[in-house]
Amino acid sequence: MKRFIGVFVPALFLIAVITSYMTFAQSYEWTENTIIAHAGGGIEGDKYTNSLEAFQNSYEKGHRLIELDINMTSDGKVVARHDWKDTKDQTYETFKNRLYKDKYKPIDFQQVIKLLKKYDDVYIILDGKTKSPQAVQTLYKKINVYTKNLKPRDKNRLIPQMFYKQDYQLLKNYGFKDVLYVIGRESYTNQSLAEFCDERGIRAVSIDKTFVNTPLVQTLKKKKIVSYTYTVNDRGTMKRHKQMGVHGFFSDFVDAY
């Protein structure tokens, strides 16, 4: 019996270590992709549609990282929409029954989940259109209604963007494995940013293309943190950013490569 226990306990420990390693290894595997289809991806010359057609078009072009802007209707329903500038705030009923730009089918969050399950090799980046930590809490409380019962295989393919440091714990509490930190709304030094991300296991950040610089990108790279810049639609800019050490790009019209 003692011999059995002596073998059994180390075996359990080994299994736990392997399981832990596999879980860690699978984190941020989506960063193997260098192009993120911005706002669903451009379609027929149109940007920011966050539409069903744009999503499907991006997938057919080979994109496996697709960003969707997540907003709320005037009556508090969660939908994919960048803003309401062209229509003012809409009720959910109006949103669902009005084609965007008179030709694109709008997506609500329930359909986001359906797309996630249908295209089981795609990762969806969630860009919550919020302007404060309090608004982030409100939005993700509603999102949690749709995501709380998802299988890990599916939920781990939803990648929320975080804009405030305090968002991190909120998103973890709601069960999201990976996050993409959009830097710029809070003050930091290159080193403090890299340390904040490294200490929390954040392995990807996004940077406005007008603010990206070599020292920042290289400081992050030393901590094995990759950078995506936004929004970039030409190869020349991509080449310059690559020379800085940038890993990938949010893009409307550049095909996956």
Q: Based on helices, strands and strand pairing, what is the structural class?
A: alpha/beta
- The helix/strand series, from N terminus to C terminus, equals HEHEEHEHEHHEHEHEHEHE
- Number of helices, where a helix is a run of at least 4 consecutive DSSP H or I residues: 10
The CATH architecture classification of the largest domain is Alpha-Beta Barrel
Describe the global form: globular
- Termini separation comes to 58 Å
Q: By CATH's scheme, which homologous superfamily of the largest domain applies?
A: Phosphatidylinositol (PI) phosphodiesterase
Number of strands: 10
**Helical fraction:** 40-55%
Question: How much β-strand is present in the residues?
Answer: 15-25%
What is the name of the CATH class of the largest domain?
Alpha Beta
Low-confidence stretches: 11-25
Tell me the Rg in angstroms.
20 Å
Would you mind describing this structure in some detail?
The chain is an alpha/beta fold and about 260 residues long. The chain has two domains: about 1-30; about 35-250, Phosphatidylinositol (PI) phosphodiesterase (TIM Barrel, Alpha-Beta Barrel). The chain is built from ten helices and ten strands. The chain has a ten-stranded mixed β-sheet with strand order 1-10-9-8-7-6-5-2-3-4. Strand 9 (about 225-230), helix 10 and strand 10 form a beta-alpha-beta unit. The model is unreliable at about 10-25 (pLDDT under 50).
